[in-house]
Amino acid sequence: MRNSDLPQPISLNVQEAGGSVQQMGAVGWILTGLSWFVVVCTFPFSLCICLKVVQEYERAVIFRLGRLLAEGAKGPGIFFVLPCIENYTKVDLRTVSFDVPPQEVSAHYIYSNPICI
Predict the structure, then answer these.
(1) What is the C-alpha separation between 11 and 21, in angstroms, rounded?
(2) Which residues have CB under 8 Å from 86's CB, separation 6+?
(3) What is the per-residue pLDDT across 106-115, written as a single tens digit (0 to 9) for each?
(4) 59-65 contacts: CB < 8 A, separation 24 or more?
(5) What is the pLDDT of residues 52-108, one digit of tens each?
(6) Rounded to whole angstroms, how far apart are CA atoms 24 and 11?
(7) Please, are residues 75 and 60 in contact by the beta-carbon 8 Å criterion?
(8) CA 47: distance to chain centroid?
(9) Where are the alpha helices (DSSP H) in the chain?
């Protein structure tokens, strides 16, 4: 089996119109540093808030200050989220199926009796 036959991972990098990956500004770096400082000061208790787990059939998309991180989706497993700076959304990769009830189609203009499909 060749490498081209295998499915390739999906890249979730956010790029600007010019093609460069978005960077954080000075205020973003300051807020991130303050968040790390709070995590270090409250170390044993902050682990309960910062560590998140996603299952094997899920991925976590992490946003820092409302922008997608360049690393893309995380998971499955344990990952770290900075409080007040990062937000995450779990994406379920399982296939979902729905039962669609049968509907009656009226072909009154062609036939005198309605047709059930």
Answers:
(1) 12
(2) 62, 63, 64, 69
(3) 665 555 555 6
(4) 59/90, 59/91, 59/93, 60/88, 60/89, 60/90, 60/91, 61/12, 61/88, 61/89, 61/91, 62/86, 62/87, 62/88, 63/87, 63/88, 63/89, 64/24, 64/28, 64/32, 65/24, 65/28, 65/31
(5) 888 899 888 888 888 887 777 887 888 888 888 888 889 888 898 989 888 777 665
(6) 20
(7) yes
(8) 22
(9) 26-41, 43-50
How distant, in Å, are the alpha carbons of 32, 43, 106 from that of 86? Answer: 9, 17, 53
Strand partners of residue 105: 115
Q: Which of 113, 116, 14 is nearest to 69 (CA)?
A: 14
Q: Is the pTM of this model over 0.85?
A: no
d(CA 107, CA 32): 64
Q: Which helix (H) or strand (E) is 87 found in, with range? A: strand 86-92
3-state SS assignment for residue 44:
helix
Q: Which two tokens stand for residue 42?
A: 């409250």
For residue 15, the 8-state DSSP code is B
